[in-house]
TrEMBL record:
It catalyses: L-glutamate + H(+) = 4-aminobutanoate + CO2. Its cofactor is pyridoxal 5'-phosphate. It comes from Durio zibethinus (Durian). One of its GO terms (molecular function) is calmodulin binding. One of its GO terms (biological process) is L-glutamate catabolic process. Keywords: Calmodulin-binding, Decarboxylase, Lyase, Pyridoxal phosphate. This is Glutamate decarboxylase. The keyword Iron-sulfur does not apply. It is an enzyme of class 4 (lyase). One of its GO terms (cellular component) is cytosol. The keyword Nucleotide-binding does not apply. Belongs to the group II decarboxylase family. SUPFAM superfamilies: PLP-dependent transferases.
Length: 503
């Protein structure tokens, strides 16, 4: 890399062009920090140019995470980008905004909060941190109880569906809790509450239900789980609780399915997490965990800081973090209000329906997502013998769409689906366009498949003709077929290696 640091002043003026290529004559170092500095314009331009090759976040339909916010909120976020959230002494207002968000969310989930009481909860970096904290609280509570009963407390487990997001596997591995997963089956892609309750034993610290499965958006039946588990608790004398992972559904159900009972209205639900950065409509980096009451959060997990002259309890995994997301969450809650969230979610559901109908019209897919759930469309090919969903995902890339394809977890791993998450910024016209692009990709793959088939049958007939008395036919047949097979195999391998993960 050559940077014009030694140029005389006049020459530097000429050099200070906006285009970094005028400064950089050699490849940029990738492994070691460069010896010399570079002009700020050059650094900006180089990085900005490289970032142009990233996907367009608005077209990234793999993610639930917010990719658009109002300019007024962007302004607030930029203004607080230099505030470390943990400096509560210096930024008491930011702390207060967090507490207001916790109260609003706990109220939305019907936490039994008495007059003059504040809710128990905390802002986190996302649902993953929220789940680690909720899991730790369950583990500690269970251990304390077992210790007090003089029983062993070294084999805690947690019961979930096999469809849980990877953060539950992380929790289990990092905090040494066995993960007992209820297997799925073809056509049923969420945790079966009856099977989950069967798996509960005296070492179960909680059953985790998902409000909005990552894979299909479907809501698990928390009410039934609560009923079955209440019965089991009565029979056994245990008091196994429920956690609801409402990462996506926590900002959906209260607004569009208010009668659905999944939250603190159910007595065994002791804690709930939600991602502020999903349907909470804030950019990446904020989540929430709320507890039913302070009895559910063991006091020895809470660190007390009294920088403010008043007691400031903290329960987080890390110390420093940004304040912008918390402020943005408060902005969204008061700017949109119940009415605003409701409008936005209803609109997402309508756009999901438009897309679903467009996909159904092709006649090639089975829809595996449900109408009640997170607004997304998950769909599987009716016939995967000629091409796979991975090839469709790859084909959509050329239009700029990022649509993940993945296989289901055990025992439905033979089912592969595509999933489109409908966010606020995915308009009806984009839904219509995507449906027509899916149709186009399918048609292209159809014609490619028939070219391969025609090619093979053409080779067959040529070979048959040649084979009449001509031994060279076998060689010709092998070569053509081998080439076709090789192309298809390596293409499939390429596509499979590029599977997009889901979050
Ligand atoms: C059900 C569920 N739980 C947890 C998570 C993790 O959430 P976060 O990205 O906010 O850490 C996700 C992410 O998609 C999810 O879908």
């Amino acid at each position: 890399m050559v940077i014009s640091t030694t140029y005389p002043a006049a020459e530097q003026q000429v050099q200070s062009s906006t285009f970094a290529s005028r400064y950089v004559r050699e490849p940029l170092p990738r492994f070691k920090m460069p010896k010399n500095s570079m002009p700020k314009e050059a650094a900006y331009q180089i990085i900005n140019d490289e970032l142009m090759l990233d996907g367009n976040p608005r077209l990234n339909l793999a993610s639930f995470v917010t990719t658009w916010m109002e300019p007024e909120c962007n302004k607030l976020m930029m203004a607080s980008i230099n505030k470390n959230y943990v400096d509560m002494d210096e930024y008491p207002v930011t702390t207060e905004l967090q507490n207001r968000c916790v109260n609003m969310i706990a109220n939305l989930y019907h936490a039994p909060i008495g007059d003059g009481e504040t809710a128990v909860g905390v802002g986190t970096v996302g649902s993953s941190e929220a789940i680690m904290l909720a899991g730790l609280a369950f583990k500690r509570k269970w251990q304390q109880k077992r210790k007090s009963q003089g029983k062993p407390y070294d084999k805690p487990n947690i019961v979930t569906g096999a469809n849980v997001q990877v953060c539950w596997e992380k929790f289990a591995r990092y905090f040494e809790v066995e993960l007992k997963e209820v297997k799925l089956k073809e056509g049923y892609y969420v945790m079966d509450p009856a099977k989950a309750v069967e798996m509960v034993d005296e070492n179960t610290i909680c059953v985790a239900a998902i409000l909005g499965s990552t894979l299909t958006g479907e809501f698990e039946n928390v009410k039934l789980l609560n009923e079955l588990l209440t019965n089991k608790n009565k029979e056994t004398g245990w008091d196994t609780p429920i956690h609801v992972d409402a990462a996506s559904g926590g900002f959906i159900a209260p607004f569009v399915y208010p009668d659905l009972e999944w939250d603190f209205r159910l007595p065994l639900v002791k804690s709930i997490n939600v991602s502020g950065h999903k349907y909470g409509l804030v950019y990446a980096g904020v989540g929430w965990v709320v507890w039913r009451s302070k009895e559910e959060l063991p006091e020895d997990l809470v660190f007390h800081i009294n920088y403010l002259g008043s007691d400031q309890p903290t329960f987080t995994l890390n110390f420093s973090k940004g304040s912008s997301q918390i402020i943005a969450q408060y902005y969204q809650l008061i700017r949109l209000g119940f009415e605003g969230y409701q409008n936005i979610i209803e609109n997402c559901i309508e756009n999901a329906t438009v897309l679903k109908e467009g996909i159904e019209k092709t006649g090639r897919f089975d829809i595996v997502s449900k109408d009640v759930g997170v607004p997304l469309v998950a769909f599987a090919l009716k016939d995967s013998s000629k091409y796979t969903v991975f090839q469709i995902s790859e084909g959509l890339r050329k239009f700029g769409w990022i649509v993940p394809a993945y296989t289901m977890p055990a025992d439905a791993q033979h089912i592969a689906v595509l999933r489109v998450v409908i966010r606020e910024d995915f308009s009806r016209s984009l839904a219509e366009r995507l449906a027509s692009h899916i149709e186009e990709v399918v048609k292209e793959l159809d014609s490619l498949a028939s070219v391969v088939a025609i090619g093979a049958s053409h080779v067959d007939s040529v070979v048959d003709a040649v084979q009449e008395g001509n031994k060279g036919g076998t060689a010709a047949r092998k070569t053509e077929r081998d080439i076709q097979a090789e192309v298809i195999t390596s293409w499939r391998r390429f596509v499979e290696n590029k599977r997009t993960g889901v979050c």
